[in-house]
Amino acid sequence: SSWLQGFRGEFLRPSQSSGRTARTPQNPRAERVSWSVTRHHGKDDMSEPLTLSGIAPSPSMAYLRALIGEGESIREEIEGDPDRLMQVVREKLEGFMMPYEFGLKEILTKIEILSGEWDVTTPHNPIEHVKTRVKSMDSLLGKLVRTQCPPDLDEIRNRIRDIGGVRVTCSYVQDCYLVAHALASQPDITLLEEKDYIANVKPSGYRSLHLILEVPVFLSTRTIDVPIEVQIRTIAMDFWASAEHELTYKYQGELPAELREKLIEIAATAASRDEQMGIVRDQIEGPPLPGRASA
């Protein structure tokens, strides 16, 4: 059964918390929390031309022509002109990716509200850092080729669910599940998918809680339901994942066996430290609140 189905408790108000005292900070807007917004994940900039050389693996010209799906006039215009073709592709994708920018803002606002509430009403705010990003166009096109996604925008919207992403970093393992529940249980959010790599660690040692949350974006003439990937992890998990990603990139995806084994060993050590920190926190603040997962 999913962690969300088993998460029956609610985050208790201070008066219900068995002696826990709510913290009243001097600045209730919680300057302690670090917020980072990255508009695009990748090397491309919206002012720079989109080029095939920046995409790996590169899509075929036929794929790009099918992707833009324009009429005969535009097809004649771009025939034999790769630069013009890439310009049209960029224009097409800009409109397609716009709702993901707005969907991220919706999710980020919800996280900011939760953080502000917890900073005022509870002795411990579970949110430490928040980062957001929208995939760059070259990164998106490369993924379309790798996953053999048909050159159709509706298919892309259904199949590629991590175009917009949020990463929330917490202090303790219990906090990861608390934040996930607080987001996924909101009435205007639909939980499309969950992957609990904390309880089910990847063979590489990677640990994190992944959610695909669908949020409505209200435009002037229509409403679009936008999927946003939310990754929730502890500081230790985040440090390990960042270091592993950097090393994998350095070795072009082929880490030496001894280095891979060392990373798995370090991941196990980090998991043990997370568990120990959770125990220490429980000794100081009391046992986890009802319904919260234990480390």
What does the secondary structure layout of this molecule look like, with pairings?
Layout: E1 34-41, H1 61-68, H2 72-78, H3 82-121, E2 127-135, H4 137-146, H5 153-159, E3 164-170, H6 173-184, E4 190-196, E5 209-218, E6 223-234, H7 235-250, H8 257-285
Parallel strand pairs: 1-2, 3-6
Antiparallel strand pairs: 2-3, 4-5, 5-6
Describe it:
This protein is 44% helix and 18% strand. It contains eight helices and six strands. It has a six-stranded mixed beta sheet. It is flat and about 70 Å long. The C terminus is likely disordered.
What descriptors fit this protein?
8 helices, 295 residues, flat, single chain, six-stranded mixed β-sheet, disordered C terminus, 18% strand, alpha/beta
Please tally the β strands and state the result.
6
Strand content: 15-25%
Distance between the termini: 18 Å
Sketch the topology as an H/E string, one letter per element.
EHHHEHHEHEEEHH
Radius of gyration: 22 Å
- Give the class from helix and strand content and strand pairing: alpha/beta
Net shape: flat
The biggest sheet, with number of strands, parallel, antiparallel or mixed sense and barrel status, is: 6 strands, mixed
- Mean pLDDT, to the nearest integer, reads 80
User: Uncertain segments of ≥5 residues (pLDDT<50)?
Assistant: 7-30, 38-47, 290-295
Helix content: 40-55%
State the helix count. Answer: 8
* Strand order within the widest beta sheet: 1-2-3-6-5-4
Summary of the model, kept short:
With 295 residues, the chain is α/β, with parallel strands linked by helices.
